[in-house]
Amino acid sequence: MAGQQFQYDDSGNTFFYFLTSFVGLIVIPATYYLWPRDQNAEQLRLKSLRRVHGRCLWYRLRLMKSQQSIVPTLKKAALLFGWAVFLLLAYKVSKLDREYQEYNPYEVLNLDPGASVSEIKKQYRILSLKHHPDKGGDEATFMRIVKAHSALTNDESRQNWEMYGNPDGPGATSFGIALPAWIVDQKNSMLVLLVYGLAFMVILPVVVGTWWYRSIRYSGDQILISTTQLFMHFMYKTPNMNMKRLTMVLTAAFEFDPRSNKEATIRPTDNIEVPQLIRELGNINVKKKEPPFCYPYSLKARVLVLAHLARMEVSEELEEDQRFVVRKSPAFLQEMINVGCQLTMMANSRGGFHAPRLVTIENCMKLTQMIVQGLQESKSPLLQLPHFEEEHLRYCISKKYKVRTLQDLVSLKDSDRRSMLRFLGEEKYDEVMAVLGTFPHITMDTKLQVLDDEDSNNITAGSIVTVTVTLTRKRMSDIFEKEQESTCQGDEAANTEEAGDANKAKTKVWQNKSKGAKKAAKSKRKKLTKKKATPALAKTKQANGNVTGNEATAAAVAAKEEEDEASDKGSESDEGEANKDSPSERDEDSDKQSDTEVDEVAGDDEEEWEALQQSIQRRERALLETKSKVTHPAYSLYFPEEKQEWWWLYIADRRDQTLVSMPYHVCTLKDSEEVELKFPAPSKTGNYQYSVILRSDSYLGLDQIKPLKLEVHEAKAMLDNHPQWDIPDTEEEDEEQEDSEGIEESDDEDEDND
User: Fold this and answer.
1) pLDDT tens-digit profile of 227-286?
2) Domain boundary at 94, 120, 146, which?
3) Where is the composition biased (Basic and acidic residues) (predicted)?
4) Which of 207, 594, 617, 694 gives 704 a disulfide partner, CB atoms 3.0 to 4.6 angstroms apart?
């Protein structure tokens, strides 16, 4: 285009401005997001958890990692280097000369605007002698002085400067590109082209392709699609899956195969150590020829999981692989539960194939608890506590204490608990109590209703039932304190009762001394029974002091009730006679009664409407709120990663072994949580017995089952002759009525004329 020029930055000054801005846009946000400022907070958090979780494997690994990790140091070094580059570029830019400032010849000659020609020439002679190249001056400065002198002394140059700001007249439009000129230099063209092709034709396509390939292989929960398909195949094939079969399916996940996951490894020593573990474990279906259970990676993962559940020691190399397998297992079991729920929904909607049984889904939940705690299914839940070994359980399950669960241990008196755990020292006992005090104690309240219905408490066939479950989490230590208070109060009450019994015993002993006392007591009892039968006499005898205080008050209350009833009957009869005499008053009373009934119905409707609006607002808030999944760290001695307390909540028909509502994974229960479980009511009327089940994914022995009774009524029929729906076609009926009236009037007129 004519009159335009594109020029690169020959000196590279403009490129420094661009480079400074680019580095600043990277360094400033990176410092805000990547600076490891929470390192001290993590150290403080671990220090606060040390007393309870100090013996846990995940705690020791996290503490070691935080002390030995060099990642925070590398992040700090990289960010500091970036800031050093940014400050160096900013300093370089601040030192650059301003080349594109507005041209002013008076400033070049150090003169005030409006100076005379003689002053301009005089100043020019002085500066030219000073800056002439022959005198040792700067040539560029001398050329600017000459240009300024000509601009102020030549009429044409001065006119151009005043009009265009340039002594040479109007110039071409110039566009500067903030890149140094060496980039487009012909000598460097091949190098620049090579860098450009490498960046945009190799690196960028590889990065995008890798991301795309990974995204299509993994699900939203970062689990291989092939693993999900494997779980679906075997859950469809084996609807009723026991724990042994479930372990085989779990360890067949393709994440444990080195061909599908680079984190998984097959070591040369596996051929020696894995068979040795198989011999120690016993029967684990090694000869199973069904793929993929017979593959080496699946067999190794199965052996490592079973060794973890048996709390067996393995070599250091296998221990690293075992941690990898155990760490991945809870997420895979959750995926199996999701797959089982999907198959159940498909079976309920379509039919034609077998849905997984309830025992299969519950075994997935139980296996998650077992893996987190490193315990076999048949072991006691007391082994979750520190310092408890197999040989110690005989003290707990003895006939004297009969402690088999954590709840039994909590319900013991402190003296009995200390006596039972005497094999522990004081320090170990305090540690056990501190750990047990952090275990969760959940209270579960349920409310059954049919939302969006006139009568929310009436459950009809086929209606959508909503069970609102309120979960409240407390610590076992709170239960300790309450029980200690209750035991203290109970001891005081027992002491008073014992004192009363002693007094009674004394009186009985004293009464047995003479037969006359016995007869007197018998006669007194007979008199009391007679007094109870005749309240009017009881009143008079109470005045004489022959009746005890409690009996007298009871007799007085009974007499008062009889008098009130008699007066009510009398008033009713009087009202009836008065109403017979005055029908207008009876009509007014009936109108008042109907008005009060209408007001009561309206009040009930308003209450139901407010409750419905509150439930809708609650649901909307629950959808909008994004709660953190960080609840409470679970105490797990052998799990290699910090595990948060999560729960499964669902409704099941344990008689038919079917799911009524899909399991809801409660991941935000910190103090209290409200969960709504929905399911369609049965199509047949009758009484149904369901169960609301709460299962932990971290602890053994803390599951809860609460019965849920469902009374299903017949659905109301749609009334065709409802008064609000009998809307006549007014126009047609009015026209027909007018026509018939007109005909009748004409007939009457004819008859009159005749």
Assistant:
1) 999 999 999 999 999 999 999 999 999 999 999 998 998 888 899 999 999 999 887 877
2) 94
3) 567-595
4) 694
